[in-house]
Amino acid sequence: MEYRYLGKTGLRVSELCLGTMTLGRETSEKDSFSILDRYVEEGGNFIDTADVYSRGGSEEIVGKWLKNQNRDDYVVATKVRFPMGEGPNDIGLSRKHIISGVKESLRRLGTDYIDLYQVHAWDPRTPLEETLSTLNDLVREGLVRYIGASNFKGWQLQKAIDLSKQKGWEQFVCLQPQYNLLCRATEYELIDVCENEGLGVIPWSPLRGGWLSGKFTRDMVKPPENSRISVAEEKGYSETWDKYNNNFTWNLLDTLYSVAEEAGKTPAQTAINWLLNSRGVTAPIIGARTMEQLEANLGSAGWSLTKDQLDRLNKASELFVSYPYDIDAINQRTKGRE
Hints:
Strand content: 5-15%
Helix content: 25-40%
CATH architecture: Alpha-Beta Barrel
Mean pLDDT: 94
Distance between the termini: 47 Å
Radius of gyration: 20 Å
Number of domains: 1
CATH class: Alpha Beta
Order of helices and strands: EEEHEHEHEHEHEHEHHHHEHHH
Number of strands: 10
CATH topology: TIM Barrel
Low-confidence stretches: 332-338
Shape: globular
Strand order of the largest sheet: 9-8-7-6-5-4-3-10
């Protein structure tokens, strides 16, 4: 596995990040340790979790695994924002909740520092100054090495960056957005902001909850039993059958399967490799409930799609764009006439 710098920092992370949302939820502690060990065998050093995953269960499993490792060999990332209790201050990005959250994450992870501490989403109720100054203090205290954001809109991310620059505070070094062949609206503003400001991009859901895994074909009338999509509506997941059962999805999957066959890879490996070749991307976050899924996802690195294959996937996944996001097309048509 190759290593890439995270944004404009000197921190090097493996090109595939291991997401641990399933640990403690769908994957036992024993199997979780095996998955972590196998990921490391392939050169992985970047592990992403969050306090809200299994209400701390994921962090605890990662922490138990870390006890038998050389801690400094790994870049451990976690997040804060969502409810961790029933109290009025057990949620959000207030100074109180962030400080409480980081202390609890450190305890569960069994470590004295977090490499990358990310705010899990925007908090409209807390002044941005309160959130960013608190994160700055955590870095100054040595509890956190770097800070990042997840699930921000373009203006929110730019506002946070500008405010940190103005105040001389630590700046976000990366963004963790949803980004995949079925979700390219991330390119409208977020990728541009990250490239312009030197932030790394670590996309979550590279397979869109399984839609890009190779399990779905246009002749289906319902999702496979026991798949994530089959329970998505019940669980409140966004990748529901009704949302994606349409011609756009099936046409994209036709192209994905054709390109995968040409490349001699699985559709899942092809979809993740597309991300590895996308501008601004540092490391897609791969998840795995089983060792088989991990092995399959690890096969997405170490090779590259051809330009023709990338172009076909880009065309098949291109979303309809209206004003003002079509302004680049307008500029291209008038180029050289001014």
